[in-house]
Amino acid sequence: MEVELQAQADPDFARRLLDYTIRVHLREDMPVLPVAVFLVPEAEGTAPPYTFACAGRQVLSFDFQVVRLWEVDFSQPALQAATALLPLSVMEARAGPERVAWAEARLRQEPSLSSAERLDLLVVLGTLASRRFGLQRLSQSLRSIMLDSPFWEEQRALERARERARTLVTFASVRGLALPTDAEQRLAQLDAVTLEALIKQAFTTPDAAATALLAATRPPEH
Question: pLDDT by residue (tens digit) across 172-186?
Answer without folding.
Answer: 999 898 888 778 888
